[in-house]
Amino acid sequence: MIERGEHTDRVAVLQQEVEQLRSAVVSHALIDQAIGVVVTVGGLRPEQGWEVLKHISQHTNVKLREVARVLVQWPAGGPLPEVIRRALPRAVDHVRRTDSDHSCGGEEDEEAVLRDRAS
C-alpha cells in the first residue's frame, strides 16, 4: 500500500514532468515556426532551416529558443539583435555550402536579398 507521503511525492514528480512536457511542446512549436521563417527568407528546405538555427545558436552563444523567438517575431517588425542579424546570412551560406545535394541557381542574388531583409 502506498503511504500518503509517497503519494504526495509521486504527484509532485508527475506535476513537474507535465510542466516540462508543456514547456517542450511550446519550444518545439516556436522552433518549427522559426524554421519556417528561415526557409521562407533563405529559400531553403526545412532540414536546412533547422541547420541554420543550430549554426546561429552555436556561433553566437545565444540559446536556440531565443534565436527562434526573435526570428519568429522579426517578420512582424520585431527587432533582430545585431548578433543574430549578422549570423543569419553567414549561417545560410554555410548550410548551402555544406549541403551538396542542394544546387540552386542565383545563390548570390538570394544572399543579397537575405542580407537586405536582415538589415
Helix content: over 70%
Give the overall shape. elongated
Sequence of secondary-structure elements: HHHHH
Average pLDDT reading: 86
How many structural domains?
A: 1
Q: Supply Rg.
A: 19 Å
> With helices defined by DSSP (H or I, 4 residues minimum), what is the helix count?
5
Supply the helix-strand structural class.
Answer: mainly alpha
How much of the polypeptide forms β-strand, as a percent range? under 5%
Low-confidence stretches: none
Cα distance, first to last residue? 64 Å
Q: Sketch the major β-sheet.
A: none
The number of E-state strands comes to 0
Characterization of this structure:
This is ANTAR domain-containing protein. Residues 11-72 form the ANTAR domain. It comes from Streptomyces lannensis. Residues 94-119 are annotated as: Disordered. By secondary structure, the chain is mostly helical. The chain has one domain (4-118). Helices cover 78% and strands 0% of the residues. It has five helices and no strands. It has helices at residues 4-42, 46-60, 64-73, 82-98, 107-118. The termini are far apart. 23% of the residues are buried.
